[in-house]
Design brief:
The chain has helices at about 25-35, 55-60, 75-85, 95-105, 145-155, 175-180, 210-215; strands spanning about 40-45, 65-70, 90-95, 110-115, 135-140, 160-165, 185-190, 190-195, 200-205, 220. By secondary structure, the chain is α/β, with parallel strands linked by helices. Helix 1 (about 25-35) runs parallel beside helix 2 (about 55-60) and helix 3 (about 75-85) packs across helix 4. The longest helix has 15 residues, at about 25-35. The radius of gyration is 20 Å and the shape is globular.
């Protein structure tokens, strides 16, 4: 999306840890990349704690660019992660409006409310249900209560085809997902993000799937979640 808007974008791999000897090597290579490219904006999505706070501080001290952290799981991640990381970046963009209120309460002033969206290059008109290849589909990882819900629905005679890590069909290439969505009479969305924290608690959040399915011409059936009606 950024490239289509005319920006030069350089990707730094932080998911595949096999590229690095250890976390120190990952952080050192990130610093070297920033020093070499001198970006105007560094847009980062934290998975866990792979990039150290000291690394973020060094980037802000020596790079003129703006460091933006994108918080996609703040419905449950604010307390254990985001509130600490936010004080080491220029802006923390969050899809959870509740996190903005918590940040204000905690004296953190750089939280910005944002939201997921659909890819403008993958917008399609819906197909008639009679032309769809799948009755019901779900694209996403099999974790939490998702497999159990799917089993219950199948026992009730509902034909569901699932794609993604942990399902029998396995993962599918990203470019195939809009086609699967469009060729499904119904696309499911589970808003659950799993059980987190102590004491354990179940959280729900707005998913990218909410917008991606609608944009790809799919019919979305979703669990409700706070903020969805907005």
């Amino acid at each position: 999306a950024l490239r289509r808007l005319g920006h030069a974008v350089e990707f730094f791999e932080s998911w595949n840890k096999s590229r690095y000897r250890d976390f120190a090597d990952l952080n050192q290579q990130l610093l070297e990349r920033v020093e070499r490219t001198k970006p105007d904006i560094i847009f980062y999505v934290f998975l866990t704690y792979e990039v150290w706070l000291e690394t973020l501080d060094l980037i802000r001290r020596h790079c003129p660019g703006i460091l933006i952290d994108w918080g996609t799981d703040d419905s449950w991640k604010y307390k254990q992660s985001s509130r600490f990381v936010a004080t080491h970046v220029d802006a923390h963009a969050t899809t959870d409006t509740g996190a903005c209120a918590k940040a204000t309460r905690d004296g953190i002033d750089n939280f910005v409310a944002t939201q997921w969206a659909a890819d403008a290059g993958k917008l399609f008109e819906p197909l008639p249900a009679k032309d769809c290849h799948y009755a019901v589909s779900f694209v996403g990882t099999a974790y939490g209560n998702r497999p159990g819900i799917v089993r219950v629905l199948k026992k009730k005679g509902i034909e569901i085809t699932c794609f993604g890590h942990g399902w029998p069909n396995g993962s599918v290439p990203a470019e195939d997902i809009p086609r699967i969505i469009r060729e499904s009479a119904i696309s499911l969305n589970f808003a659950d993000s799993g059980v987190h924290g102590l004491p354990p608690r179940r959280y729900r959040q707005i998913k990218a799937r909410t917008f991606e399915v609608s944009g790809a011409g799919g019919f979305l059936l979703t669990e409700n979640v706070k903020g969805l009606s907005e």
